Amino acid sequence: MAHFIDRRLNSKGKSTLNRQRFLKRYKQQIKRAVSDAVGERSVTDVDSGEQISIPKRDISEPVFHTGKGGKRTAVHPGNDQFTAGDRIDRPPQQGGGGSGQGDASDSGEGQDDFSFSISKDEYLDLLFEDLALPNLKNSQFDQVVQYETYRAGFQTDGVPSNLDIVRSLKGSMARRIALTAGDRRKLRECEEKLEALRNDKHDNTVAILELEQTIAKLKAKIAGVPFIDTFDLRFKNYAKKPVPTSKAVMFCLMDVSGSMDQATKDMAKRFYILLYLFLTRTYENVEVVYIRHHTQAKEVDEQEFFYSQETGGTIVSSALKLMDEIIQARYQDSDWNIYAAQASDGDNWADDSPQCRELLTKKLLPVTRYFAYIEITERQHQSLWREYQTVEEGCENFVCKHITSVNDIYPVFRELFEKTNSSTASGGS
Fold first, then answer.
1. Residue 143: inside a domain, yes or no?
2. How many CB atoms are located within 10 Å of the residue 157 CB?
3. Are residues 309 and 354 in the same domain?
4. Which of 160, 216, 304, 368 is most buried, judged by most C-beta within 10 A?
5. CATH number of domain containing 375
6. What is the pLDDT of residues 193-250, one digit of tens each?
7. Which residues, listed in sequence order, are joined to residue 53 by a DSSP beta bridge?
8. What is the average pLDDT across 371-387?
9. Quick one: three-class SS letters along the chain?
């Protein structure tokens, strides 16, 4: 019987396979816990790992155990307080029957939650699973590079789940043949000589004893070659190759006017940080254009977009006009997949809202794959929301969503970028 002993230097990762099985088996419970944790994070640590908890009842598994069996006689103690037919008083409303000082729970028996930590990569994988850019059109190997995994031969190191048994046994057989070929040839020659001496009528006792000793040594040497060695092990190797995709650009338009208080701006930043992490993790080299606006719009870099304190009045059309100018100047090529995400509290000059609708329907949406608008407010919707709803009714590539609290951000984000059959067929990751 062969025994496999893991003597690799990276022995500290031996539990990786079990961890992956655990994450796969309880993915739904873990995803719910991750979704709940998103809203509790600060803006600065959205992309770090997470300590999550899932109820023990969700990870319990059936267990086989040996029953008592046979015939048994048991004597159960009775009681000296009640007899059949007695009425039992209802327990008091507050407090339990024990000697503790706290109140009893009315929700039945409970169990501690099972808590564990997940890494940054595991957290982001769960966060952005089944998400994709809608309507992404495949055209060429350029800018956006997506990868698919394929078999790429064998390697001498890997995880046990990738061990190729047939290839390893072939290597074992080849090694044993190579190491024992010379000894087997000598063994055959010695056995032939021994047979000839035994058939000879002369006295060859000494020669026969020497040959028998030589044969025994050769057999022991051949038997000493291990059936399988670490050199024989071959693991399936997987590599990634780029698949045809297209060039893509995402426009991020954020309202930074005076009506956007700090809490509203923080929610908008959370949404855009999720969007940025999703794009950079799922796609390679997607261009991102950041536009901040109040009465005037300005293209800024990532640092200024998230951390600048500039503020002012509100004219939303200024951001849409600047987006149109940038498209005409840099992204007019038909190979570009253009996306946009706009965040605002809905406050805008009443005369400017119809102009926003005109800019969207006549200039931006005809060249845009997908335009998402989120309105972050607890107030009643104003003219901008009504104009945008009119646009949504007539355009399939325009979506409006309403956010009132931090807990709404991730569910809305998943609704906006949830992978569909059309996005998968068009090249979604």
1. no
2. 13
3. yes
4. 368
5. 3.40.50.410
6. 888 888 887 878 888 888 889 999 999 998 888 888 888 888 888 887 766 556 788 8
7. 115
8. 89
9. CCCCCCCCCCHHHCCHHHHHHHHHHCHHHHHHHHHHHHCCCCHHHCCCCEEEEEEHHHCCCCCCCCCCCCCCCCCCCCCCCCCCCCCCCCCCCCCCCCCCCCCCCCCCCCCCEEEEEECHHHHHHHHCCCECCCCCCCCECECEEEEEEEEEEEECCCCHHHECHHHHHHHHHHHHHHHHHHHHHHHHHHHHHHHHHHHCCCCCHHHHHHHHHHHHHHHHHHHCCCCCCHHHCCEEEEEEEEECECEEEEEEEEECCCCCCHHHHHHHHHHHHHHHHHHHHHCECCEEEEEEECCCEEEECHHHHHHCCCCCCCCCHHHHHHHHHHHHHHCCCCCEEEEEEEEECCCCCCCCHHHHHHHHHHHHHHHCCEEEEEEECCCCCCHHHHHHHHHHHHCCCEEEEEECCHHHHHHHHHHHHECCHHHHHCCCC
For residue 294, report the phi and psi dihedrals to the nearest 5 degrees. -130, -105
Calpha distance 249→279 (Å, rounded): 10
- 350, 272: one domain: yes
Is residue 104 included in any domain, yes or no?
no
Same domain for 22 and 119, yes or no, is yes
Pairing of strands 336-344, 370-376: parallel
State how far the Cα of 128 lies from the Cα of 282, in Å rounded to an integer: 8
* pLDDT tens column, 269-281: 888 888 887 877 7
Question: Taking the model in full, what pTM does it have?
Answer: 0.54
Q: For residues 384 and 351, is the Cβ–Cβ distance under 8 A? A: no
Q: How many domains does the chain have?
A: 3
Same domain, 256 and 392: yes
312 shares its domain with 186? no
Q: In angstroms, what CA-CA distances link 67 with 39, 56, 71, 135?
A: 48, 25, 12, 59
Is 398 in the same domain as 254? yes
Quote the crossing angle between the two packed helices 120-127 and 262-282, to the nearest 10°.
Answer: 100
